[in-house]
Amino acid sequence: MEPVRSLICSLRGRSLLCVVGALTGLLLTSSPAVPEPAGDIPVRGSAYMGIGVLAHDGSSGTPPPAGRASQLEGVDVSSHQLDVDWQTLWGSGTRWAYTKATEGTSYTNPYFAQQYDGSYDVGMTRGAYHFATPDTAGGAAQADYFVDHGGGWSKDGKTLPGALDIEWNPYGDACYGKSTSAMVSWIRDFLNRYKSRTGRDAVIYTATSWWTECTGNYAGFGTTNPLWIARYASTVGTLPAGWTVHTMWQYTSTGKTVGDHDSFNGSADQLKSLATG
């Protein structure tokens, strides 16, 4: 295990082995470790899809596969992108977008209106996502907060169902201090409340390794909830249990001003169908 990655895993609540690996790596290397750009634990509310090097599977240095041009390009953004130049993104071929709306039950994205409405205004199909913090409030309470602060849905053919961003905890223990069964219950509570409020099954954004570690690779959501897989590689790789196909794929991060890049596993008509319900 490389020193930087080992140190990060210890900061995020990984096992004692991670700490030992970090110390061992520091003793063996002759060059100083490069720290994470964010430094220490980030401020609550600042999380976003794919935050940090442990928030996705694969490597961010892997080039996109040549055949991806046949799929619909998308982007996900948060307050890190500030005001987004949607016209430029549209001109480059981006056809759908998700904007972070909320986190926990206390944070709302101050750039949400410009990002969410701006993508819609240039012609994109748009959706909102919620960054889950299962250690701060229950799943149903967070679903309510999400719906009440931009995460709702309308049958206009241009609004995608809300997405639950459930991944490694950037503020502490990887699984938010929950057992696998408790995590599954939390996710179920969120999904059930979201559907009862909107009539739609929420999209689940996650990485296979996190899902395996923190839910025990639970297979019960695959038949109802579309999967948005986070893997920075040339293929989506192994999917979490229960899903035989992914709907969306976050395949790379390109920095602060553009947001993360994604592809939709289908045609424009299928994207419209997902939005319509």
Give the topology:
Layout: H1 3-11, H2 16-28, E1 57-58, E2 72-77, H3 86-91, E3 94-103, E4 107-108, H4 112-121, E5 125-131, H5 139-151, E6 163-165, H6 180-198, E7 203-206, H7 208-215, E8 227-232, E9 248-253, E10 260-264, H8 268-276
Parallel strand pairs: 1-8, 2-3, 3-5, 5-6, 6-7, 7-8, 8-9
Antiparallel strand pairs: 2-10, 3-4, 9-10
Description:
The protein has 277 residues and is α/β, with parallel strands linked by helices. The protein folds into 2 domains: 1-35, no CATH class; 57-276, TIM Barrel (Alpha-Beta Barrel), CATH 3.20.20.80. Helices cover 31% and strands 18% of the residues. The chain has 8 helices and 10 strands. It has helices spanning 3-11, 16-28, 86-91, 112-121, 139-151, 180-198, 208-215, 268-276, and strands at 57-58, 72-77, 94-103, 107-108, 125-131, 163-165, 203-206, 227-232, 248-253, 260-264. It has an 8-stranded mixed β-barrel, surrounded by 4 helices. Helix 3 (86-91) links the parallel strand 2 and strand 3. Helix 5 (139-151) runs parallel beside helix 6 (180-198). The longest helix is centred in the last third of the chain and has 19 residues, at 180-198. It is globular. The termini are far apart. The relative contact order is 0.16. Mean pLDDT is 83; it is low at 1-38. It is an enzyme of class 3 (hydrolase). This is lysozyme.
* Radius of gyration from the alpha-carbon trace, in angstroms: 18 Å
Q: What would CATH call the homologous superfamily of the largest domain?
A: Glycosidases
Q: What is the name of the CATH architecture of the largest domain?
A: Alpha-Beta Barrel
**Residues in helix, %:** 25-40%
Which parts are unreliable, with pLDDT below 50 for 5 consecutive residues or more?
1-38
